[in-house]
Structures are given as C-alpha cells and as structure tokens.
Amino acid sequence: MTGTLKGWVEVAGEILSPEETLFRVRSNPLAATAFGGEFSLEWNNCTARDRLGIVPGPGPAGKITCDGDAIGDVYPRYPVMDLETAICEAVRLRSSQGVVALSGGVDSTLVATLARLPCLAVGLEGSHDLERASRAADLLGLDCTHFTIRTGDVESALVRILGAIPRKSPVDAAIATTQFFIARAARDRGYDRVLTGQGADELFGGYARYLNARDIESQLARDFATLGAQAERDQAVAALHGVLLSMPYLDLRVVNAAHALPAERKVSGSLRKVALREVAGKHIPHELAWAEKKAMQYGSGIAKEIRRLARNRGCKNVSEYIAELAGNQMESP
Q: What is the CATH number of domain 83-299?
C-alpha cells in the first residue's frame, strides 16, 4: 500500500496502525478529518497533518489537501473533559513507547509520573535542571538517566542547529540547543520518541510576564499562536538525530480543557499555572507541583554557556555571535 505516515494517528482514543491509517484515507481522504495524534500523512497526491502541526511535513497544518487544493480540515471532536482527565488521556496515548525529557519542573514531572516511561535529563555539570530532575526522580521512583553536556560540544552543536532552524534569534538558538542535546541523548539510548512538556506555559500562564499582563487571555492567545513555529524549530533539531518530539499538553483534549478555564484559574496573584499545579498535586508531591523552575535554556545552563562563548569570540552580544556562526555555517561547503 503506497503512502507514508510520520508520527502516529488515533481516532476517539484508539491508536490506528499505519496500515489502517492509510487504508482509511485511501478509501476516503476526508477520513482524516477525525484523526487525532501527531502526524504527517502523504498518499497518492494527498497530504494531511495534525491540527496544530506538531509533526512537520508537506501541506499546511490541520488541512487535508489533494492535488494541491485544501479539501477539508483535520479537526477531531472530543467529548468535553475536565483538565485532569484530558491530561491523563493525552499522556496515555503517547506512553506506548519512548522516553520522557525530565527537567524536574511541574510540566515534565507530571508527564513522567503518568507515563511511567524511562526518563532522561540533560544539562551542563551542576545545572539547575540536572539537580531538579534528580530530586524528582528520587521522590517518584522514576528511572532517569542524566546526560551531562560538555562545554566543548555546545558551539559545534550550535553550528548544526543554525543550519536547521528557521528563526535564528538568541532565544530560539538557546532553546534549540537544549533540545538538540535532549534528542541526542534519546537517540544514544535507542529511542526515537521523546515526550516533552512543551505548550504548558502558553496554555496555563507559565511565563513571568503574565503576572503583569493587563489582559491575560489576549496574551495567552498570542503566545499560543506561536506554538506551531516553536514545534517547527524543535522538531527540526530533533530530526538531526532521527527523533520525533511528542507533546501531551498540545493534545486537543488538553487544549480544549485549558481554553475553557477562566484566566484566574491560570494566573492568580503571584501564582502561575494554578490549574495545572492543582492537577499535578494529585499525582506528585506538593513540593514538585508548586515549585518554580527556570526555562529550559537557563535551567540546562545552555544560555549561560552561549553568553560565555560569545564573550570569548569578542562579540558584543549573543545576537552578534549567533549571526557570525550562522554566516559561517552558510559559507561552509
């Protein structure tokens, strides 16, 4: 049977085999309307991708196309679920294989304890994320392998990354570098799927800027709209190691449940991600559910190391350093 499936497909909570997936769309391309999961499909002259475009591929995200024309939307309809049920179901569907990227924050720790898959933690020696991941793994009895990033590997990784990611800003480069080492660690352990906590900040109000936002819902909506570009960046880096990232918080069940919550259930006073932390508190210790954590590029130590490398090169700032590396990458044969 001709056709290719990258990722995985489910319908109403049942994972379809690649053969069944392709049989359905070859019989009726509009069958992909009901497809959930994280996927990019090609068959005959048709394509389909998951609603949010988590998996890269030809054709626009969330569309079914044939002969270059959009003929329908990929938009699975799920029953209304409370947030805890939605998260549990999203993780269940992704837990048949793979490894969890564990940083010790509430997002990844909740995924790890629900999935009960092996975990990996990456960071430079003595980094915040390695320490927090070790603490979480000890408290929850998780199988977690630590991968210490060598400072001498960061610049060579950056050169490869800058050739793969579409936006080459300092923030994108630092996040992508952390993802690079996560994907490499997964590959070295024989895994080609990594479950991550991406999307939780944009759904539940995790960034510090939400504390001072005049209109939290508008800010969340703007940030949520960037997730497709973030997925494109991160998947491009993971693909350098033959790995695909899987994102339970961007399951449409979770997205729908999060969007149904009022702003005060996300950010309240000085607290962020309130609703998510309340769910997490039912599955992990209180100290893990409610602790603050640095963003991955800071927690891993990568952002600090990139700043050091920029200074050593005599660059005025990280932007100049990134531009110099990107230019060298483009000039290389």
A: 3.40.50.620
One-letter amino acid at 9 equals V
Look at the block and give the residue holding tokens 């490894």.
99
Quickly list H helices, 13-82.
18-27
Distance of CA 54 to CAs 8, 46, 151, 240, Å? Answer: 11, 18, 30, 16
What is the rounded distance in angstroms from the CA atom of residue 331 to the CA atom of residue 317? 22
Residues 6+ apart with CB under 8 A from 14: none
Residues in the chain: 333
Strands 69-73 and 144-149: unpaired
207 phi, psi to nearest 5 deg: -85, 150
pLDDT for res 183 = 97
CB environment 83-106: b (16+ within 10 A), e (fewer) = bbebbbbbbebbbeebbbbbbbbb
Residue pLDDT, tens place only, 27-62 = 999 999 999 999 999 999 999 999 999 999 999 999
241-294 pLDDT tens trace:
999 999 999 999 999 999 999 999 999 999 999 999 999 999 999 999 999 888
User: Which tokens sit at 159?
Assistant: 């050169």
CB 282 within 8 A of CB 210: no
The side-by-side arrangement of strands in the sheet containing 119-124 is 144-149, 119-124, 99-101, 193-195, 244-246
Q: Terminal CA-to-CA distance of the chain, rounded, Å?
A: 39
Cβ–Cβ < 8 Å for 99, 189: yes
The structural domains of the chain, with segments of one domain joined by +, span 4-73, 83-299
Question: Which tens digit of pLDDT belongs to each residue from 136-180?
Answer: 999 999 999 999 999 999 999 999 999 999 999 999 999 999 999
CA distance linking residue 219 with residue 45, whole number of Å: 39
Question: What average pLDDT score do residues 71-92 get?
Answer: 97
Beta bridge partners of 161: none
Rg of the chain, C-alpha, whole Å: 20
Structure tokens of 250? 């961007």
Per DSSP, the three-state class of 99 is: strand
What share of residues in the chain are helix, strand, coil (percent, to 5)? Answer: 50, 15, 35
